[in-house]
Each structure stands twice: as C-alpha cells, then as structure tokens.
Amino acid sequence: MSVAFIGEFFSLLFMAIALGMDAFSVGLGMGMQALRLKRIFFIGVTVGISHIAMPFLGIVIGKFISTRMEGFAVLGGGLLLFGLGVQMVLNSFNRDGKQIMKPVGIGLMLFAFSVSLDSFSVGLSLGLSGVKTFLALMLFGLASMFMTWTGLLAGKKARGLLGVYSELLGGSILCGFGLKIIFG
C-alpha cells in the first residue's frame, strides 16, 4: 500500500466518523424512546444505506462539475465542507424545540434523510477533489451505521449531554477538512 492511499484512507475514515457524529447525536435522543434491538438494528442499516446513497449523488455531481470548472471547483468544495462544519457547530448549540420522530415508516426515512443530508454536501466536495469513490462510500455507510447503533444504544442508558458535544466535535472536524482543502 502506498503512503498516499493510507493518508487518503485515514482522511476519509475521520471524515466518515465526523459525518456519523450527527447520526450518533440524533440517535442518542431517539434511543431514549423504548426501542427494541431489532428496531435499533433496522434504523442503523437504513441510516448506513442513506449515508452511501447521498454522498454517491454528491460525488457524481461533484465529478461532473470538476471537469468543467477545475480550480474553482476545489475551492468551492473546501468552502462547502467548512460551511457544513460551521452549520453543525451552530446546530450543536440550538437544541430547543427538537421533536423526536418515530423511527418507523416515513419517520424512519425522514430521519435517515435528515442525518445524511450533510453527507451529500461532503460527497459533492469529494467529487470535486477526485477521491476514491467506493472507499469513501463504504466508510461513510459503515461509520454512520455503527455510530447510529452506538447512539441508539447509549441513548437507552444516558441522557442527551454527549449528543451536543459529539455534533460539536463532528462540525469541528469538517471545518478542519474544509480549511485543509482550501489552504492545503
């Protein structure tokens, strides 16, 4: 394995964990509901699949844009990541009035879509930078699935304190990656 591949793998792994922090924090709150282990398993798989589909769309669109706009596309991708990180950090302070939805049917689809929407933006910026698509998608899907399961299970035992800090950490990591792309 080359040093470049190892570096890209760990960058994508940290990014996948950062994206999964959102699912973890929302899973903490949702885990405080009375959920059976079968339901927790199904929620995690659904979120994982959603974290594969959304960045895939972003990567495809990002690759299309990058062939047309070269240097501006890389700068735009970095700014997008940074902006997404800032949004996650700001959202970590705004916890008033969040309604916990039921994780079944359309509620589960909306939940999976809402926690994976940020991965579309990350996929867009990754498509602009020419990342290894399959590796990124698998890491995003697996990390978000495990982070969702962890959040749901921890939510059965704990209260929401960790959720705020996990989203704050995830947003900070995305800001760092955005700045690395812009200035790196």
Automatic annotation (TrEMBL):
It comes from the Bacteria. Keywords: Cell membrane, Ion transport, Manganese, Membrane, Transmembrane, Transmembrane helix, Transport. The chain crosses the membrane at residues 6-28, 40-65, 71-93, 105-128, 134-155, 162-183. The keyword DNA-binding does not apply. InterPro entries: Mntp/YtaF, Put_MntP. The keyword Manganese applies. It is a multi-pass membrane protein. It is found in: Cell membrane. Probably functions as a manganese efflux pump. HAMAP family: MntP_pump. Belongs to the MntP (TC 9.B.29) family. This is Putative manganese efflux pump MntP. It comes from Aquibacillus rhizosphaerae.
